[in-house]
Design a protein that fits this description.
This protein is an alpha/beta fold and 241 residues long. It has one domain: Rossmann fold (3-Layer(aba) Sandwich), CATH 3.40.50.300. 50% of the residues lie in helices and 13% in strands. The chain has a six-stranded parallel beta sheet, sandwiched between helices. Helix 1 packs across helix 10 and helix 8 packs antiparallel against helix 10. The longest helix is centred in the middle third of the chain and has 20 residues.
């Protein structure tokens, strides 16, 4: 039976290195930890998420509830999403996109329910983020039914913990609040996300550390639990629209 409640979240920005691929992994981790089923789609020719997923497959470390597909054209992407919805086995779809924007950015927007643009707390990244925000505004002016377009939010990422945030970081935060449709929660700079990129989904890392024979290693589970909570809150805010 088709799942009419399936939602599609696309990570999109006009710049590479802002954390789209890591966010796809982290948000997928949060969704899996909440018991949802997930489809991850990589449309980025660089294939960061593709390589990550293949590495997990080779180790037998892909958790239940998640599937993966590499889409090479907009038609391929749309067909995959339609098939997932009709199969009724997927709650959330996460799409990674090219860092430079793609020829089919408009098409990706058409199949998404929510667009998310990650941005780092720097002047240069803010300027590039503004280009993505402007693109979406222009898209709304080009389509016949703009209200059918996805929501678009900006997500501040790799933000230092409060004790380490400088006046520059605080200025960047206030500027982002003024300029962009900002998700109400920032994604902090955490070693848990670095280890996720190396080792796998956050929920699996939580379980691995919790079950470790060494008590000192078991205590490390908290770092990953905090990351799951953070991304779960971010995901809730995104889906709220």
């Amino acid at each position: 039976m088709a799942n009419a409640d399936m939602k599609v979240v696309a990570l999109m920005a006009r710049k590479g290195g802002c954390g789209k691929s890591s966010l796809v992994k982290a948000l997928s981790s949060a969704a899996l930890s909440s018991g949802r089923t997930v489809l991850v789609i990589d449309t980025d020719p660089q294939g960061d998420v593709t390589l990550w997923f293949r590495k997990l497959q080779a180790r037998g470390a892909v958790p239940s509830g998640v599937s993966f597909y590499g889409a090479t054209t907009s038609t391929d992407l749309e067909d995959t999403i339609i098939a997932a919805q009709e199969a009724g086995q997927t709650d959330l779809v996460f799409i990674d996109t090219a860092g430079s924007g793609t020829e089919w950015s408009d098409e990706i927007a058409m199949v998404a329910d929510h667009l998310v643009t990650p941005v780092l707390p720097s002047d240069a990244d803010m300027a590039v983020c503004a280009q993505t925000v402007d693109w979406f505004k222009r898209l709304r002016g080009r389509v016949a039914e703009p209200d059918r377009l996805p929501t678009h939010n900006v997500l501040l990422t790799r933000f230092p913990a409060q004790a380490k945030a400088t006046k520059v970081h605080q200025r960047m935060l206030q500027e982002a609040i003024k300029r962009f449709p900002l998700v109400g929660i920032v994604v902090q700079e955490r070693t848990a996300y670095v280890e996720m990129d190396e080792q796998g989904f956050l929920g699996d890392l939580v379980a691995s550390y919790r079950n470790h024979a060494d008590p000192l290693q078991r205590s490390q589970a908290r770092r990953f639990e905090e990351a799951v909570v953070e991304c779960s809150e971010v995901l809730t805010d995104i889906l709220r629209g």
